[in-house]
Amino acid sequence: MPTTMRALRKLERAAGAALVEVPVPDPREDEVLVRVHGASICGTDLHIYDWNEWADGRIPHVPMTFGHEMAGTVEAVGEEVHHLQPGAFVAAETHIACGHCSTCQTGRAHICENLRILGVDTEGVFAEYVVLPAQNAWVVGEGIDPDAASIMEPFGNAVHAAFGTGGGEDIATNAVAVIGCGPIGMFAVAIARSLGAWKVIAVEPNDYRREKAAEMGADVSIDPFDRDPVEAVLDLTNGTGAEVVLEMSGNARAIDQGTRMLARGGRMSLLGLPDGAVTLDLNDQVIFKEARLQGITGREMFRTWQQTTTLLSTGRVDVSPVITHRFGIDRYEEAFATTASGASGKVILLPGGEGVSQAAGA
Ligand code: ZN
After folding, report:
1. Distance from the CA of 34 to the center of ligand 1, in angstroms?
2. Catalytic residue at 47?
């Protein structure tokens, strides 16, 4: 067991990051030490890397190791941890819940009142090793490729949005519109397809992402700058609209359009984060339609992980087309530029270096 490791850290409250040597952390009594196989880059990480206004207001302190999406092998466990042993392959749930607030006590730990986020409020996963609370380590199990395991967290966002609180029973045989086809939208397209949607309609201005959405199973991919997406969805659904709208863009205009393309009695999951307040015509777009709008954050702990595991381990959803790039962690600058380019799906950093991926998946 080495005593030091490489970690990609924010050393200053400014753009950029540095790959530095730091001590391998020790797990406390209720924690596990995980050797990171793969860590995928999220939009949040890009904000932290670029150090935008959000990051400056949100990140409590530097220096810190960032990154939160990951899978890896348990190397050591704290003395109070009995359900996990070294050698277990796990993925990280990134919402660290307090366990004692009213939402935690009523089984809704993902919206904990005292929520902390891995790699935002705590030391993150862009490193050779990371310490996780044992309760945040999800055992990946058979049938899921290690690289796919490293994107289970954002995939779980898409699963949670698609299933909502109603178990996703409104998807089968109905029309589903997915607005915004970054990686989570790409996943959502495939999940809706897998759950038996009649039509899956993707709305996305970026050509690369629209093509990916088609590859993941969208029947129609609409460029909203080319064609009014509300008219398009109504045309494609005989004037009814989409029974389920999954909003992944956070764009205010797209959110408004989402409520307009939503069928009467339909359901809209809101996952994308708008920059500011959004104005909607609640009378016609929500109240008289009896529309149900649900905010989506994180994943239900751990129902969403069970659903995610089933979808991936049975091959009902193949995420491999979305995992478009892999880089050794020393090539992090290239990895972040690729993520920012808009011509990528999920970009995975391999702290153990390139070539580890194939070896671990073999
Ligand atoms: Zn709590």
Report:
1. 24
2. yes
Q: What are phi and psi of 66, to 5 degrees?
A: -105, -170
| Same domain, yes or no: 291 and 176 | yes
**Cα(26) to centroid of ligand 1, in Å?**
25
Dist. CA 110 → ligand 1 center (Å): 8
Q: Is-above-0.90 flag for pTM?
A: yes
* Contact partners, residue 337, CB within 8 Å, separation at least 6: none
* Contact indicator for 151, 323 with CB cutoff of 8 Å: yes
Angstrom distances, CA of residue 338 to CA of 126, 129, 331, 333: 16, 24, 11, 9
Candidates 282, 288, 216; CA nearest to 248 is 216
Write down the catalytic residue from 47, 73, 297, 324. Answer: 47
Confirm whether 259 is domain-assigned.
Answer: yes
Torsion of CA 234, 237, 239, 244, to 10 degrees: -70
Set 37, 44, 122, 309: catalytic member: 44
The CA–CA distances, whole Å, from 274 to 177, 246, 248, 270 equal 18, 14, 10, 10
CA–centroid distance, 25 to ligand 1, in Å, is: 25
Percentages of the chain per state (helix, strand, coil), in multiples of 5: 30, 25, 40
Distance CA(328)–CA(29), nearest Å, equals: 31
* Sole residue written with tokens 């391999």: 350
- Which residue range is the domain that position 272 belongs to? 166-295
Tell me whether residue 95 is one of the annotated catalytic residues: no
Q: Say how many domains are in the chain.
A: 2
Cα 64 to Cα 11, 12, 289, 294, distances in angstroms = 7, 9, 47, 33
Write the pLDDT tens digit of every residue in 237-292: 999 999 999 999 999 999 999 999 999 999 999 999 999 999 999 999 999 999 99
